[in-house]
């Protein structure tokens, strides 16, 4: 599988410090990417995000134990997040403060991927068929919508306080979503300093272009970065855009077989004088 990615992690135009962190590892057997956003309204956000990323970066030594199983890989990531949560929760208790961070992780193992997140740092996904917001928004806005207490057409899922973050409670329950890698796909992990200035619609449109090969990971990242600065960049801004292309022979064979069936159908229809419509 071919992987191209690009990242940025910057202070922005207003904040005095950068409490965001990002990491990326692209290997032959597995790959992982992560964004952490320290909670700026509380103490030591930089320490919190650094702690989370430090635990995530240890996955380079641990994911080999997944043995190509995406569920095992997701469990290993969750264990890393839980370890970071334990460390930060103890640190907060000792100092009498609240010290926490969001986290969003994307893992590739074989021809599968997993999205794992806690907090409001979103993950987006696109292939040739669709583009979606692939993570959970752990905020009161999303909880109200899911519980039926709010109208999803009127209430913003990003509204309200965080309902989960690493380090703020004794236990943490990350969201997990898995999927297949097939053909060309694009992913975005970012902090809310990026997503607040780019709507889901705009981000999905950008990722559709990347998954179609019309824009590179580098140019897509620069596009998002420029939009944030044009809007004032009042928060730290961090993003990681990944474009994958799975050249697995099995997936390729499926596409070829599908093309053969379509060609046969078109030929038969033409011989019979019948017009058919092909939906992709």
Can you offer a commentary on this structure?
There is one protein chain. The chain is α+β, with helices and mostly antiparallel strands. It has 8 helices and 10 strands. The strands form 2 sheets. Strands 1-10-9-6-7 form a 5-stranded antiparallel β-sheet.
List keywords for this structure.
280 residues, alpha+beta, 5-stranded antiparallel sheet, 8 helices, 10 strands, 26% strand, globular
Give a nutshell description of this structure:
With 280 residues, this protein is of the alpha+beta class.
Order of helices and strands: EEEHHHEEEEHEEHHHEH
Report, as a whole number of angstroms, the end-to-end distance. Answer: 24 Å
Q: What kind of sheet is the major sheet?
A: 5 strands, antiparallel
Number of strands: 10
**Residue share in helix:** 25-40%
Average pLDDT over all residues:
85
Structural class: alpha+beta
C-alpha Rg (nearest Å) = 21 Å
Within the largest sheet, what's the order of strands? Answer: 1-10-9-6-7
Counting DSSP H or I runs of 4 or more residues, the number of helices is 8
Q: Strand-residue fraction?
A: 25-35%
Query: Which spans of ≥5 residues are poorly predicted at pLDDT below 50?
Result: 141-157, 249-280
The best one-word shape is globular
Furnish the topology, listing elements before pairings:
Layout: E1 2-10, E2 20-26, E3 30-38, H1 45-57, H2 59-62, H3 70-95, E4 101-109, E5 112-118, E6 123-126, E7 131-133, H4 140-146, E8 175-180, E9 183-190, H5 192-195, H6 200-211, H7 217-230, E10 237-246, H8 249-272
Antiparallel strand pairs: 1-10, 2-3, 3-4, 4-5, 5-8, 6-7, 6-9, 9-10
């Amino acid at each position: 599988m071919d992987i191209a990615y690009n990242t940025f992690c910057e202070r922005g135009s207003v904040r005095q410090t950068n409490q965001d962190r990002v990491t990326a590892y692209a290997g032959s057997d597995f790959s992982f990417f992560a964004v952490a956003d320290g909670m700026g309204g509380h103490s030591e956000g930089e320490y919190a995000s650094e702690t989370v990323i430090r635990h995530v970066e240890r996955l380079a030594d641990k994911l080999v134990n997944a043995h190509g199983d995406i569920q095992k890989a997701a469990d290993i990531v969750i264990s890393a997040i839980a370890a970071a949560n334990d460390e930060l929760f103890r640190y907060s208790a000792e100092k009498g403060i609240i010290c926490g961070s969001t986290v969003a992780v994307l893992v590739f193992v074989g021809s599968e991927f997993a999205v794992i997140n806690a907090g409001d740092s979103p993950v987006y996904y696109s292939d040739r068929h669709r583009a979606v917001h692939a993570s959970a928004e752990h905020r009161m806005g999303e909880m109200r919508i899911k519980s039926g207490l709010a109208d999803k057409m009127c209430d913003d899922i990003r509204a309200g306080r965080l309902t989960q973050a690493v380090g703020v409670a004794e236990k943490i329950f990350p969201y997990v979503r898995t999927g297949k890698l097939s053909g060309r796909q694009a992913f975005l992990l970012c902090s809310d300093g990026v997503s607040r200035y780019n709507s889901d619609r705009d981000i999905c449109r950008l990722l559709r272009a990347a998954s179609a090969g019309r824009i590179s990971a580098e140019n897509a990242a620069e596009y998002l970065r420029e939009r944030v600065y044009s809007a004032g960049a009042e928060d730290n801004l961090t993003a990681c855009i990944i474009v994958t292309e799975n050249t697995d022979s099995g997936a390729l064979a499926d596409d070829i077989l599908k093309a053969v069936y379509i060609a046969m159908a078109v030929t038969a229809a033409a011989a019979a004088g019948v017009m058919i419509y092909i939906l992709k």
